[in-house]
């Protein structure tokens, strides 16, 4: 078994980004500017946004955090999105999900200008991805692709099973793994909560990508020898023995599958760090596009 070390890989990519931004500064060019919009006080969202802002600072990228109350109206949030769309100093921005229940997430996502949609969630960018045209790829699938490339994992002709069909991870990574390029050229099976005999399907996977949000859902009897596993899930559970007061769990039971897997991402330190560097790379792409 080899660990797919997202923490170390992201560190190397951040160094490359740092050098690229330093070169822009030397030329007197504009430094890419990422804005993160945080609505409310969701603990996980705060952690994610803080990590994104810290990553920007580390590589020398400009970042701004916009904190808004969870009582903000949908119209007020849409007005803030409009302001960011029209601000020439902002190259890309994200509105951290989930949003309060009284706000329509789809309406907010569609209000973001496609050229600044560095999360890659806008229907315009999803459509371009489906057609294999240059665009912003959703950050988590993009992070998985970069791990595949950095570890030289063979994907051509492999059976890739994706567990979870969300528009953020499952559906886009299924599309990307089937495209006619590398990483890609896999035969993809997209499974979900209504799939019958799921374990029979996951046992046929050469590459297994799990994005369910159900801790330790994939057990040792659900995978075959030599499988490559990408565990996207991350769930917090209270744990008094931890300094943080909680422990993080993936969607895969690591201890049960580790001896069968050829490659596997840990939780934490696997896909998560790669998601953040993908966001940075998308922001640079947005700045270049302007």
Query: What is the helix/strand order?
Result: EHEHEHEHHHEHEHEEEEHEH
The profile of the biggest β sheet is: 6 strands, parallel
Strand segment tally: 11
pLDDT under 50 segments (min length 5)?
none
| Shape field | globular
Radius of gyration: 19 Å
Sheet/helix structural class? alpha/beta
Order of the strands making up the biggest sheet: 1-11-8-7-5-6
- Look at the structure and give the CATH class of the largest domain: Alpha Beta
Strand content: 15-25%
Q: Per CATH, which architecture of the largest domain?
A: 3-Layer(aba) Sandwich
Number of separate structural domains: 2
Estimate percent helicity.
40-55%
The CATH superfamily of the largest domain is known as: NAD(P)-binding Rossmann-like Domain
CATH topology of the largest domain: Rossmann fold
Mean pLDDT: 95
Q: How many H/I helical runs? A: 10
Intertermini distance: 43 Å
């Amino acid at each position: 078994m080899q660990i797919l070390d997202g923490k170390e890989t992201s560190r190397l990519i951040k160094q490359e980004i740092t050098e690229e931004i330093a070169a822009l500064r030397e030329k007197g060019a504009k430094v890419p500017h990422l804005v993160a919009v945080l609505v409310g006080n969701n603990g996980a969202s705060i952690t994610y946004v803080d990590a994104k802002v810290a990553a920007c600072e580390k590589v020398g990228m400009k970042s701004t955090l916009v904190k808004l109350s969870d009582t903000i109206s949908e119209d007020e949030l849409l007005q803030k999105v409009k302001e960011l769309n029209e601000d020439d100093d902002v190259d890309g921005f994200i509105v951290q999900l989930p949003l309060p229940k009284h706000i329509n997430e789809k309406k907010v996502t569609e209000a973001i200008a496609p050229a600044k949609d560095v999360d890659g969630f806008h229907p315009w960018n999803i459509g371009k991805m489906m057609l294999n045209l240059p665009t912003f790829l959703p950050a988590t699938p993009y992070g998985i692709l970069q791990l595949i490339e950095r570890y030289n994992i063979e994907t051509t002709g492999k059976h890739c099973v994706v567990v979870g069909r969300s528009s953020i991870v499952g559906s886009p990574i299924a599309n990307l793994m089937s495209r006619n390029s590398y990483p890609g050229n896999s035969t993809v099976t997209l499974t979900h909560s209504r799939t019958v005999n799921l374990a029979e399907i996951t046992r046929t996977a050469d590459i297994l990508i799990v994005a369910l949000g159900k801790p330790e859902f994939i057990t040792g009897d659900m995978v075959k020898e030599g499988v490559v596993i990408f565990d996207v899930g991350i769930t917090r559970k209270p744990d008094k023995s931890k300094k943080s007061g909680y422990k993080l769990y993936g969607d895969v039971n690591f201890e049960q599958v580790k001896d069968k897997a050829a490659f596997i991402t840990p939780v934490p330190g696997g896909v998560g760090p790669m998601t953040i560097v993908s966001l940075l790379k998308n922001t640079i792409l947005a700045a270049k596009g302007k």
